[in-house]
Design brief:
This protein has 306 residues and is mainly β. It folds into two domains: 11-209, Jelly Rolls (Sandwich), CATH 2.60.120; 227-305, Immunoglobulin-like (Sandwich), CATH 2.60.40.3080. It has one helix and 21 strands. The longest helix is centred in the first third of the chain and has 9 residues, at 91-99.
């Protein structure tokens, strides 16, 4: 069982994989047991790529303390479904859990952990993401994941994951986010970036048609409040957005550990294209989260600090 004191949440980054035309030069990983996972379809997080530490995977711990021992040399936390009295919080989730009995899932991840997955995207377009997850409590600032492709710095933004009644009580949540994917063989990077105990078994990618204009988040909408661009210069972080009419706008910037790096409250109420400049400490290269709220709307966008 995962300790309630363990901190972890989830994020992911899509790049491209070896031995294929789309693969970035120098990627040293390979699909686990030579089996490339396919999209549309189900990506099992316990089947992360084989390869060297800090190139293909990274884990805070040096030893996996749980019952799934097939990849112990990595230290990546994995548990066997059924070892902790696993069941679903809903009838649907319970049936999905029963199918997975005796199989490994990703468990006890910590801030700073990450794993990569070689996937083959059969068709370019927009995909909805659904997940089988378990968590018992919420910790500030969020429990969530973010997926990012090497060709799209926007990614999914922050996806808030549901809280269940116990660490081994699971829920299947549909359409947690929408993201655009190009066709071809790629590498999914799954980064642990926030706070909150979490187990996660897999991510389902469902084809949703032509590429969407922007990602959509569970519990939030970009209707009337799109982030149009993010960049940084000597003045600070520039966030361009289209504000809805009548209502204050607030912006917050988080780092990968969930700490607030900058915030701006009660910005201009005027509707239409607007750009805010936030002064913030110089961050190391890596993923940041830009959150903008107004008139009951909330959008979070992942952004890579160069």
């Amino acid at each position: 069982m995962i300790s309630a004191k363990k901190n972890f949440a989830l994020a992911a980054m899509l790049a491209v994989a070896p031995l294929m035309a789309d693969v970035p030069a120098g990627y040293p990983g390979a699909a686990y047991q030579g089996k490339v996972q396919e999209i549309p379809g189900r990506v099992f997080l316990s089947d992360f790529d084989q390869g060297p530490k800090d190139k293909v995977w990274h884990d805070f711990q040096t030893k996996n303390p749980w019952a799934c021992k097939v990849r112990d040399s990595t230290g990546v936390g994995m548990q066997l479904m059924g070892q902790g009295g696993d069941k679903g919080d809903t009838k649907e989730a319970d049936s999905l859990v029963k199918i997975r009995m005796g199989k490994c899932y990703l468990a006890e991840t910590n801030q700073g952990d990450w794993t990569k997955y070689t996937v083959r995207v059969k068709q370019a377009g927009a995909y909805t993401l659904s997940m089988l997850t378990a968590a018992s409590e919420t910790q500030i600032p969020f429990v969530g994941v973010s997926l990012l492709t090497d060709k799209d710095s926007a990614g999914t933004g922050k996806i808030v994951l549901p809280i269940t009644t116990y660490f081994h009580h699971w829920v299947y949540t549909r359409s947690l986010a929408t993201m655009n994917l190009d066709s071809g063989t790629q590498v999914l990077r799954f980064d642990i970036v926030g706070n909150g105990p979490m187990n996660i078994d897999y991510i389902d990618f469902g084809y949703a048609g032509a590429a969407a204009v922007a990602p959509r988040l569970a519990g939030a909408t970009e209707t009337g409040l799109p982030i149009r661009g993010i960049h940084r210069d000597a003045a600070g972080l520039h966030v361009a957005y289209a504000a809805p009419s009548g209502g204050p706008v607030s912006i917050r910037v988080y780092n990968a550990s969930g700490a607030v790096l900058a915030r701006s409250q009660s910005l201009a109420r005027a509707a239409g294209p607007t750009e805010a400049v936030l002064a913030m400490p110089v961050a190391r290269p890596g993923m940041l989260f830009v959150e903008i709220r107004s008139a009951g709307l909330a959008v979070v966008r992942a952004w890579v600090q160069p």
